[in-house]
Amino acid sequence: MIQRCPTGPTWLALGLLLVVSTLCSPCQGEPVKGEATLTAAKDYARLVLKLAQDVDSEVTVAGSILVIRFKQPVDIPIDRLADAVPDYVGAARRDPDGSAIRLSLARKVTVNTMTAGERVFIDLLPDTWSGPPPSLPPR
Questions:
Q1: Nearest in space to 135 (alpha carbons), one of 125, 127, 126
Q2: For a surface tag, which of 15, 51, 101, 126 has the fewest beta carbons within 10 Å of its beta carbon?
């Protein structure tokens, strides 16, 4: 008895299912949990994002909006960031899909970003800042 391999619509359906499941598997994963802390240092403000695992991020500034984009969704409560250092941040929101955090800056700043493992340090340096950016805190 000779068996035939599936052809036509069957292979097409299997291929489509494979492509969709491959592309959507990152979408179905749970967001990475984390916490955010915004503090005022001597002459600047520092936002520290502490994540449960290492997640690549990109920090950009567009006008007065600071955008932190993540390579995978994150779940970071940001409700209290705007109240923490109102001289630097006026409002904060997380994109519904967890792909980015957006901060409305209350003043003109230069942004310095450093990553150390699961932590992202984002320094908001006032336009009067001179010299090298602040270093990472001691462990």
A1: 125
A2: 15
How far is residue 92 from each of residues 14, 17, 113, measured CA to CA in Å?
A: 44, 39, 18
- What is the Cα–Cα distance from 20 to 14, expressed in whole angstroms? 10
How distant, in Å, are the alpha carbons of 23, 78, 82, 105 from that of 85? Answer: 40, 13, 6, 10
For residues 32-41, give the mean pLDDT.
Answer: 95
Cα–Cα distance for residue pair 33/38, rounded to 1 Å = 17
The kind and range of the H/E element at 24 are: helix 9-28
- pTM above 0.70? yes
Mean pLDDT of 18-22: 46
- Is residue 23 classed as helix, strand or coil in its secondary structure? helix
Within its chain, how far is the Cα of 119 from the centroid? 11
Distance between CA atoms of 138 and 65, rounded to whole angstroms?
A: 29
- At 47, the amino acid letter reads L
